[in-house]
Amino acid sequence: xxxxxxxxxxxxxxxxxxxxxxxxxxxxxxxxxxxxxxxxxxxxxxxxxxxxxxxxxxxxxxxxxxxxxxxxxxxxxxxxxxxxxxxxxxxxxxxxxxxxxxxxxxxxxxxxxxxxxxxxxxxxxxxxxxxxxxxxxxxxxxxxxxxxxxxxxxxxxxxxxxxxxxxxxxxxxxxxxxxxxxxxxxxxxxxxxxxxxxxxxxxxxxxxxxxxxxxxxxxxxxxxxxxxxxxxxxxxxxxxxxxxxxxxxxxxxxxxxxxxxxxxxxxxxxxxxxxxxxxxxxxxxxxxxxxxxxxxx
Amino acid sequence: xxxxxxxxxxxxxxxxxxxxxxxxxxxxxxxxxxxxxxxxxxxxxxxxxxxxxxxxxxxxxxxxxxxxxxxxxxxxxxxxxxxxxxxxxxxxxxxxxxxxxxxxxxxxxxxxxxxxxxxxxxxxxxxxxxxxxxxxxxxxxxxxxxxxxxxxxxxxxxxxxxxxxxxxxxxxxxxxxxxxxxxxxxxxxxxxxxxxxxxxxxxxxxxxxxxxxxxxxxxxxxxxxxxxxxxxxxxxxxxxxxxxxxxxxxxxxxxxxxxxxxxxxxxxxxxxxxxxxxxxxxxxxxxxxxxxxxxxxxxxxxxxxxxxxxxxxxxxxxxxxxxxxxxxxxxxxx
Lengths: 297, 334
Prior knowledge:
The complex is a heterodimer of chains A (297) and B (334).
Chain A: H1 13-22, H2 24-41, H3 43-46, H4 86-122, H5 124-137, H6 142-153, H7 157-183, H8 187-194, H9 199-210, H10 212-235, H11 247-254, H12 264-291
Chain B: H1 2-29, H2 34-39, H3 45-55, H4 61-73, H5 87-122, H6 127-141, H7 144-158, H8 181-187, H9 191-228, H10 231-238, H11 243-280, H12 286-296, H13 299-327
């Protein structure tokens, strides 16, 4: 994929928008993502119940939802092991999971852009040192490295976001670097150097803005995996801690109940993860097709 | 080719050295005194000092690293704080289970993924094509631990076709030879154990294999479509070869090159997926051990396992690169 990062210069905003509208899967992805964002933003209004009533109403424990006549009243997707409304927790969970994914990707982008630009623009020993560190980080499966970092800095949602941001940054750094390597050979950069612009000015005004397209595409796709990995850490008990309604943690707290027949508490949070990731994947693939038409079949 | 492999192997040394420094320093940056963790909350200062002495925790960090590295190179990662067993022994005891799981998962992923990809491409825009690709799209977006739970629920709890966890039924006597349950039961001629071990293996392997399966199917399809549009395929068709021969003899061979890369990349991801799958299915493998070690703050075990994982990961990636160069003569290796 490297080397295909530059976008066509003649692309205007309206042309991009037109291409986007004709890309059915991208539009579908965007709709799913917007729906999730809507749930996250309006959770206080649309959630039918309190996601963590205190004290918990244990009489409502593990009641089925709308599909059963004896279902819990006012809880369409049933209740979990502590009698809490599964639907409300999923809606609040959108807030938690989307924020977590977003923060993780933001951290990865900031670190990745900083190191990628330094590496690509200055080259030489700066490049060598940064790329060796990147190589070392690539020697670990991302989730495993995140687990190790969480072990060190401690468990919890914030720490899980930071850990995932850190382990994703090498990928971003490599993408940015290859794009910077290309851009810095362009004539307009040479011009800037000739008129005596400082390195920082060239980097901030010219190099970064021109290498941003791949960042958007990979950022979207990365958001999908970040949500998955945050949920995975939550599932392992290393991410969000109870009673936070985080999808992965909800799954891990309720999957032991499937043996007793209470399938809903573990099923629906997973569907929420699946849908968000699916939406982001569709949107990311679509954006790639639009921003880089040469990759399109 | 030999030179290329040698060079790549030599390049692994600094990477693994860096990985060992990273793992070691991360663990030692952790807040809290490991000696206190070992001794327990109410230990006296004398006990803690004795433990520091025993584990070499009172020495300066670079010295500790050097000692640890020297031992690690000899396959000794120290003793687990929790079980007091050698970490290397714990790893070797569990590693075969992870290998069996990942290999079967990858096998399922490759066979089903490649077939689905070929069928989809040769019948582009057909009902089958849309069906396979729709499933594949869901497959790449699925959290592996959730899929595991769903499979366990449907095929384990409701249909009772498969056991819901563990490696083998505890009712069956089993003698450990190599540590690979399937292999050992065949060697011993213990078919009852073989069936039980296989039945325990199927659900986790399907769960773990689904994501790479979906990726393999998608890549196979797009690569096949690419190849089918090329001139030599048109020539084959013009020569009057049957469509079956064109696809299976000529197109597939050329289309599988990018698939190999994807398979290699996914092998690495499988290791991460194994951590989750093993946790769901109480699978006695390395992934579950890492999670337990992390939860118990068993630092020697975490260090050993993570470094071992990194070692396997880079080796698998290297093998992929070599196979890639080997099967595609168009790629130059310097």
